[in-house]
Amino acid sequence: MTSPAKGYAAGAADTPLAPFGFERRDPQAGDVVIDILFCGVCHSDLHTARSEWAGTSYPCVPGHEIVGRVKSVGEKVAAFAVGDIVGVGCMVDSCGECPSCAEGEEQYCETTGFVGTYNGPDPVLGGHTFGGYSDHIVVDQKFVLRIGHDEKDLAAVAPLLCAGITTYSPLRHWKVGPGQKVGIVGLGGLGHMGVKIAAAMGAEVYVFSTSPGKRDDAIRLGARDLIVSTDAEQMQAHANSFDFILNSVAASHDLDAFVALLKRDGTMTLLGVPEHPHPSPTVGNLIFKRRAIAGSLIGGIAETQEMLDFCVEHDLVSDIEMIGMAQIDTAYDRMVKGDVKYRFVIDMQSLKAAA
Question: Cis peptide leading into 178, omega within 30 of 0?
Fold first, then answer.
C-alpha cells in the first residue's frame, strides 16, 4: 500500500526542478512517518539533479538533510512517538549484517552499499528513493535520529545531517582535541562546520582559503586565523606544524602544498570528490615524515546521533540562508558561484504554495 506525497523533482539534467506527485510506502511495523519541516540543500543535490555524477535516476527528488515532526509510527517502534522532532540524513537503509553495519558504520556497508535517502534503490517499493524536497517521508526507525536542539534552531540543524556528520566523523576518528593544531581547507558548507566542530573539540584551528576576505568570518566561526593558501610565505611559516588537516575542497588541486604542513605522523583527510583527479602527490613528502592522506564518508547512524548530541551540548548549528521551495534552481546557481553563507535550507511549508 502507498500514500500520495508532494515534492519537487528534476525531470532531466537540463530542466528546472518542478512540482512532482509520487507515492510513499505505507508504514511498516518498524517505520516512522515524518512530516518534513526543513531540508538543507547540499552540493550533492545539485550534482545529482544535474547529472554531474553518473547514475542519476529521474525523476529525482533530492534532499538528505531533513528535520521534521513524527506524524505516526509502526507498531514495533518504541524509540519515537508522534510529535517528536527527528532527523534523517544521507541514508535510509543498509544490509545490517556485514562487518561494517555490525560495527555501526553503515555508510561503508559491504554487501549492498547503503541506500541513499534519494536516488538509491528503494528496498520496499522498487524503483528509486525520493528525498527531502517533499512534504513527508517514511523511514525505518534504525535510520531516524533524535533532535535535541531548541525548536527555534531547527532550520539551522538540518545541515548537520550531512555537513555536520561529514566533518565530525573524521575529526573524531583521528582523535582531534586539545593541544592539537588543525587545519580546515575551504570555508563553505562543509568547511564552516569543520571549523565550529574542531574548535568545540578544543583544537587550535586554522582555515586555508584562497580568499583573504574570509579571515574575519573564519575567526568568528572559531578559527585562530586564516592562511591564504596561494601565499607561499604564509604557507611556509606553518611548515611541519599541523597534527591534522581536513580538506573539504571538491575541486582538483595540488595536495603537496598541504601535506608539507603536516607534522611527522600527521594526516590530511579528504572529503570532496573532484570531477578530475588531484595531481599525484609527491611520495617523498609522505615517506620521510610518515604522513598520510586519507578519506572519509559521512558517518554511521550511532555516530550521527553522537554528533547531534555534541552540537546540542556545544550550542552548534549551521550558518544558513532560508529559501522557499520555488527558489531552488536560483539557489543551485548561487551555490555554484559560492554565493551562500554557508548552507541553503528550504522551509518546506513553502512547498504548499510552490506546488
Answer: no
